């Protein structure tokens, strides 16, 4: 398979992933229960360097205190301890919370879109040159 086609297809796939993530974020914003959480610490993992995920405490709609750690990790601390962050969860499912901050959503959806755009441009350039 021509490398330009492969790069182009990779770009389109990444763009689709980003678009689906944006759609899911919008749907979650419209249909979920909103709460405010507080970053109470950071969970560190040391697989290929140090990666961080915030530990977030929030109170659900029944007044129960809850904590969770998002699965998405980064090489730097995206949120500071003590920072208030938006949290959403499906109605009746406070055991399935999501961090809904702009920073988190930008990584979740914006990163695949950005990489997809770059791959798409290089793929098209490769096809036009070849």
Notes on the protein architecture:
The protein has helices at residues 3-31, 102-129; strands spanning 33-45, 51-59, 65-68, 84-89, 98-99. A hairpin with an 8-residue loop joins strand 4 and strand 5. The protein has 2 helices and 5 strands. The longest helix has 29 residues, at 3-31. Helix 1 (3-31) packs antiparallel against helix 2 (102-129). The protein has a 5-stranded antiparallel sheet with strand order 3-2-1-4-5. It has 130 residues and is an alpha+beta fold.
Order of helices and strands: HEEEEEH
Structural class: alpha+beta
- Distance between the amino and carboxyl termini: 13 Å
What is the molecular shape?
elongated
Radius of gyration: 18 Å
User: What portion of residues belong to β-strands?
Assistant: 25-35%
Write the layout of secondary structure elements.
Blueprint (H helix, E strand, L loop, with lengths): L2 H29 L1 E13 L5 E9 L5 E4 L15 E6 L8 E2 L2 H28 L1
Antiparallel strand pairs: 1-2, 1-4, 2-3, 4-5
Helix pairs in contact: 1-2
Short recap of the structure:
The protein has two helices and five strands, in the order αβββββα.
What are the salient characteristics of this protein?
130 residues; 2 helices; elongated
């Amino acid at each position: 398979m021509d490398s330009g086609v492969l790069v182009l297809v990779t770009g389109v796939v990444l763009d689709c992933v980003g678009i689906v993530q944006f759609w899911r974020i919008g749907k979650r914003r419209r249909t979920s229960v909103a709460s405010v959480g507080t970053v109470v610490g950071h969970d560190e993992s040391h697989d290929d360097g140090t990666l961080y995920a915030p530990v977030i405490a929030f109170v659900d709609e029944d007044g129960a205190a809850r904590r969770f750690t998002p699965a998405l990790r980064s090489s730097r601390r995206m949120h500071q301890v003590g920072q208030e962050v938006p949290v959403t969860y499906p109605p009746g499912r406070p055991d399935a919370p999501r961090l809904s901050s702009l920073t988190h959503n930008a990584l979740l959806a914006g990163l695949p879109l950005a990489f997809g755009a770059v791959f798409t441009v290089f793929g098209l350039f490769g096809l036009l040159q070849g």
